[in-house]
Amino acid sequence: MKAFLIDRYAKGAALRLGEVPEPELREDEVLVRIHAASVNPVDAKIRDGEFKLVLPYRLPLILGNDAAGVVVRVGSKVRKFKTGDEVYGRPAKDRIGTFAEFIAINEADVAMKPKNLTMEEAASVPLVALTAWQALVDRANLKKGQKILIHAGSGGVGAIAIQLAKHIGATVATTTSTANVDLVRSLGADVVVDYKKDDFENVLQGYDVVLNSLGKDTLEKSLRVLKPGGKLISISGPPDPEFARESGSGWLLRQAMRLLSFSIRRKSKRHRVSYSFLFMKPSGGQLEQIASLIEAGAIRPVVDRVFPFEKTNEALAYVETGRARGKVVIAVR
């Protein structure tokens, strides 16, 4: 099968299009013929070697972290899916590889594709929607009537998180550029801070939750908008000791993560708020719930551009500009 892969870690390097064997199917996995895959910032970070201590992949490695397609074979212990099912999913972190014609994925990590979405639209959903769900529902325990600030509202995670927070019944503020103000309002944002005109930390106050996907400066400024007891959740780091424990890191790596997050944890304590780092986990069960919300019209995917499979490198380069509105997708078939 054809696949885009890396042979070594190198910042900004092009992926290599090569012929590789079809993945071997384990007894609890489904073999999916990929119709579309989406491109995420994490793909570039893996290629650049930013995660090589936390995610020790064997090279060469096929990149790609979520997809939609059709089940063509099932393992002997698979009970939920059959050949011909249209599915979408996010493989486990040690089984990635959706920039390819096929992938073997654990049945627990996929769900039936939302019926009202195309393959390209469905492929745009898993990673960002699971991130939003696990941040807002699992970690923040967001409730009706609470106030949440979602940074980068026009980005992949932000666009879904705004809609999910509105569905829950929260008041939603977001930051975005002038060009995307109308987009985030159409997704349901109640308060929009144009970062080219205003500093969000001077405009917002008394918030229950902040979801951060940006850098260190934004993370620290976010403390000022939270009320005592509020929650600062970051998907862009730095990793904290709890994440180190959950990921089964060795002693040295645990200490490194403790040091990396020491400053923001100390400042959070001073502001009487909690800080946590979220690294999204695959979940077919949560994708089922997300599919129900999509089919009910509560959430819609936002797709900026669809690239043909052979232009995967161009798609990755476009994501790296940081200017995509919503998601960038690769049409594999």
From TrEMBL:
SMART domains xref list: PKS_ER
Keyword Oxidoreductase: yes
Stored Pfam families: ADH_N, ADH_zinc_N_2
Domain Enoyl reductase (ER): 12-330
MF GO annotations: oxidoreductase activity; zinc ion binding
Keywords carried by this UniProt record: Oxidoreductase
Keyword Oxidoreductase in record: yes
PANTHER family assigned: ALCOHOL DEHYDROGENASE RELATED, RETICULON-4-INTERACTING PROTEIN 1, MITOCHONDRIAL
Protein name: NADPH:quinone reductase
Species assigned in the record: Rhizobium lusitanum
